[in-house]
Amino acid sequence: MVGLSADVIRRYERFSLYNSPYPAHDAGCAIDLYPAEDEAVSPVSGEVLGTRTVRCPKQPYAAAEDSLILIDCGAHIARLLHVDPTVEPGDVVETGESLGTLIRSGFFGRWVDNHIHLGFRTPGQNLQRASGSLPIEPGVTVRGLRWDGVGTIREIGATYVLLDSPATDEPGFTALASDDGIPLDGGLPHYRRGGVLSATSGEVSLLGTAIGEAKERDIEWRDIAVYANDRRATGLSLFASQRATGSKLVFHEGHDFEIGEQVRVSIEPTDAPIQLG
Questions:
Q1: What secondary structure, in 3-state letters, does 24-36 show?
Q2: How far apart are CA 167 and CA 165, in angstroms?
Q3: CA distance 165 to 184
């Protein structure tokens, strides 16, 4: 397991280990870091080994090409994606320096904000394959925010709505909590697997419904459906944030909600879960 220090994590507004459909994130083996601005601030120090253009799935809202940056950090090689690099092989970068600008990647769902994908390999591993990175341990404590499922819409996009709750004025990283107060991470249930940001084991529930079984950090979601005012949502987007940004509901085929509308979210078992990856 590779530790990522609190000083590094705090440079970013949000992070997630599990909120992705791609196998690279299985078991928390990659982390997505969301900067407050479009500049791609480096989470690592080291020598740039190389950059490579990567083809993306074609999406009308995103770029057709992504970039992979490899940085030699000493004991590990960092793999970074979703950055249009201004660095070249042989350059030495320090944590906090710019690597370039963020790419609106075709690997993203439309509701996904721009971010840096980071994974680590040992020098002897295949550095080009998408999977094979080591588990990552964020060096910050994430507090779980309990929620009754009620909120007011404060922002909308074509495929998402942001609610104003749960919220807190206390500093530090927070995430939507299970009924037992465990901070949750992932796409519930649209990305099949998720995780917790405070290791636990046993059944995990949210809004009174069992959503999965935790094994240390990992959860495989049960077959559940998320509803907003009795309208089916794709799911809840779960992550850790330094700002208590409320909760994010995903509607991958669109919605008709409006800013200021009050929403009550519920979760129910289903025989037809929405699975996007």
A1: HHHHHCCEEEECC
A2: 5
A3: 15
Whole-angstrom distance, CA of residue 179 vs CA of residue 181: 6
Angstrom CA distances, 91 to 10, 100, 169, stand at 25, 13, 41
274 occurs within a structural domain: no
The pair of structure tokens assigned to 263 is: 């929403």
pLDDT digits (tens, 9 = 90+) for 96-141: 999 999 999 999 999 999 999 999 999 989 888 888 899 999 999 9
126 with 197, same domain: the answer is no
Q: What contacts 24+ positions apart, CB below 8 Å, involve 211-215?
A: 211/178, 211/267, 214/182
Read off φ and ψ for residue 250, nearest 5 degrees.
-105, 135
Same-domain pairing of 45 and 162: no
Rounded Cα gap, residues 261 and 162, in angstroms: 11
How many domains would you assign to the chain?
A: 2
pLDDT tens for 172-208 read 999 999 999 999 999 999 998 899 998 888 999 999 9
> Is residue 111 domain-shared with residue 63, that is, in the same domain?
yes
Distances in Å between the alpha carbon of 48 and those of 24, 35, 42, 45? 21, 21, 11, 9
